[in-house]
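Researcher: Let's walk through a ligand-bound prediction step by step. First, I give you the protein sequence. Second, the SMILES string for adenosine-5'-triphosphate. Third, you return the three-dimensional complex as structure tokens. Ready?
Model: Ready.
Researcher: Here are steps one and two:
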Amino acid sequence: MSKTKNSSKKELLDLIKDQRSKKKQKKFSGKFSDYLEEVLKDPGIVKTSHRRLYDAITAEGVEKLGDDDPRKVSIFDGEAIKTYDYFQSEFFGMEKVISKLMNYLRSAALRGEESRQVLLLMGPVGAGKSALTEHIKSALEGQRYFCLKGDPQRGEPLQLIPRSLRSVFEEKLGVKIEGDISPVARHLLLEEMSGEYENFPVEELTFSQRARRGVAAVPPMDANSQDVSVLIGSEDISKIDMYPEDDPRVLSLNGAFNVGNRGIVEFIEIFKNEIEFLHTIITATQEKRVPSPGKNDMIYFDGVILAHCNEAEWNRFRSEHTNEAILDRVVKINVPYILELNQEVKIYKKILSKADFSAHIAPHTLEIASMFSVLSRLKDSQKCDLLTKMKIYNGDDVIEQGRIKKVDIKDLKEEALNEGMSGISTRFIMKAIDNALSENERGVITPISVMESLTRQVKEQIIDEDFKSKCLEIIQKIVREEYLKMLESEIAKAFITAYEEQAQSLFDTYLDNAEAFTTNSKMKNRLTKEEMAADENFMRDIEEQIGITGSSREGFRSDVTAYMFAKMRKGQKVSYTSYEPLREAIETYMINSVRSMARIVTKSKTRDDDQKKKYNEMVKTLIDDYGYNEESAEEILTYASNNLWRDN
Ligand SMILES: Nc1ncnc2c1ncn2[C@@H]1O[C@H](COP(=O)(O)OP(=O)(O)OP(=O)(O)O)[C@@H](O)[C@H]1O
Ligand SMILES: [Mg+2]
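Model: Step three, the predicted complex:
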């Protein structure tokens, strides 16, 4: 073995030792009497399961959507919705769902009725229910808790205190004491400690799903294999002969409710199970007790019960009268698909960044894919077309006749109850992205290859004919046309050198003119200081781009001027992008000014020297400034020549 290897091996071993000794040092281990001292020092270590989970999540940070957050006004109707740092970097556009979830946990932590209810996440496939549940469970991972040593339920040590003493202890310790020790702990106490509970050993452990401490998951099971021992443990047959009947030493308390005591029990796809299997949930929630295997008394259980299912299963379950007892103990939170385009895009960015390939993803690719999934989830509206609705849901300003279209997001949502519970799933989109990627040897995907892949997948995989044709129409009409618009403006922009500066300068000039016009004054030329009247022709050229003509001009100009003054009063920089109608007018003006050149230069098979130079510069801008690579730039340009500027 080489020398360097030896030394690095030693280093690694030191790391292991170091970590182990740290772990050992800090963890408490002692008798119940020592534990009491710990509680006196910090009563906060005594927590119910819901409180512990709530604290673990909120400890990472809670914020309110600030006034300057554009989503606060445009998406949440001004509501100061709370956001939780613990979820922020992993989950997008789910603020409302998470806020409901946290409200449930908060009430449960305060020992409200919610602490006796199952939390059920219900939503369509791929909406993030499992991911959310996993993330909630991992909030407990590594958290410490004190428990009775040798107790398979890892019960709260304070449960040793007999009922008659509890109120005194509660007062002196400043905590609430709930529940009773498990039959196994009771047996240990009586047989091995002659009831002297102050000597009962107490240890500090950490929650760990893999080690089955405090976090348990119950997968769905079919009718033949489901066995309630998965939930409550069993009697160990090999020990039955060794001990008298009902002796707790024959119990194997290793069911989900035993393991998940003090923490979380998750029911994966809960309603795929037979109903009989779920009856323990009723007592677990309402009485906080679960049956014991054999003939022992019920066993105390304190844990967050978290379940998820999809809508069809929920409806089937709900329609059965006999299920009422369980239904009554469920807090259901809908987990719909994301309807906000920008947030949907973030989901794919996240998933792709976790995957292990280094693909080139051309600009707008994920946006185009997300546009398709979001549109497929929207219901038709009486108030606007689907694309407009999507933009409004995204908080974008939609310009109509020079004004920002006023459609209230709230009205749209009221009109379409239950929206987001059906449509294209995140997984469907991911598969299409993966397919597009695997078909390109150099690992390049573009909006074009994604649209192709989506189309193919829709044709192959969607069975419902109506939905299939709706999807195809969305891709081929709405998404494709929207993409062509984006593409045209992007190519045109790439033809204009220093696009941003030019746009800003046009914007400033327009503002000067509009102000002079509105206040009926002259304006000073910035260079020559000459006084001049407002340039009517220039203003009209800009205004025409967004269909402002005739008598509506005056109103538009004074709107712009008022807007600008308001901004300047607040000390904000007035960028050309700040007033959406004017931004659109200016961009369209600029794009139109190079359109024919862009078209000729892009399309022609033989270019003269000047055209060649222009073309190459444009490609360079696409690559250097806009994020394309050579292959993707070529692909979109070919697409543009074939689709955008058809020769009629
Ligand atoms: N809003 C979101 N934010 C971040 N990621 C999301 C969001 N919605 C879905 N995802 C991601 O989509 C993928 C699929 O989600 P998940 O498996 O949790 O769905 P599910 O609701 O459990 O579906 P199923 O009913 O099919 O089990 C996961 O990688 C998840 O991280
Ligand atoms: Mg799932």
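Researcher: And what stands out?
Model: The chain has a mean pLDDT of 90. The longest helix spans residues 465-495.
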